[in-house]
Amino acid sequence: MAALQLNALAPSEANICEGTTFLVYANNTGTLANKISLNVTMPDGFAYNPGSTHIAFPVGNHSVQEPVVVFGHYLNWTNSSWVLGNSQSLKIQFNLTAGCGAPSGKRLVVNGNPAREQPRPSIRSLS
To answer: What angle is formed at CA 63 by the lines to CA 62 and CA 69, rounded to 5 degrees?
Structure first.
């Protein structure tokens, strides 16, 4: 069974009104994972910077795929061609901007799953 372990790397703080880089790593610790979907819940007051996503795959290929932004708070990357073998991982790098009135202390939440499996979210929150 495919099992995705997710980690998010974020700076310990973000300056308001400036873009900040975030990284999400999805590592498959089980059998073949395909049709992968990754979701990020943005902190209140943050916005996605269009065109900032870069995706790195295990074989060194890179891709640019914009996330679907849902209700202004959620980012979703789903791709039916993404496949991860056992111990393979992909990295998604993107930028968010903290709005000028963003409250402090908010966290990024990440979850994901292979589309053919029952959701098994692994959540890591980093400031």
So the answer is: 140
Q: Which of 9, 30, 31 is nearest to 20 (CA)?
A: 9
9-46 pLDDT, tens digit each? 888 778 888 889 999 998 988 888 888 888 898 888 89
Instruction: Give the separation between CA 91 and CA 63, rounded to whole angstroms.
Output: 10
Report the alpha-carbon distance of residue 62 to residue 55 in Å, rounded.
6
- Report all structural domains of the chain as residue ranges with CATH numbers, in order of start: 4-102 (2.60.40.740)
Q: For residues 24 and 7, is the Cβ–Cβ distance under 8 A?
A: yes
Question: Which strands, in side-by-side order, build the sheet including 125-126?
Answer: 68-70, 74-84, 33-41, 108-114, 125-126
pLDDT tens per residue across span 57-83 = 877 677 778 999 998 889 999 887 888
What's this model's pTM, rounded to 2 decimal places? 0.79
What is the number of residues in the chain?
A: 127
CA–CA dist 58, 119 (Å, integer): 23
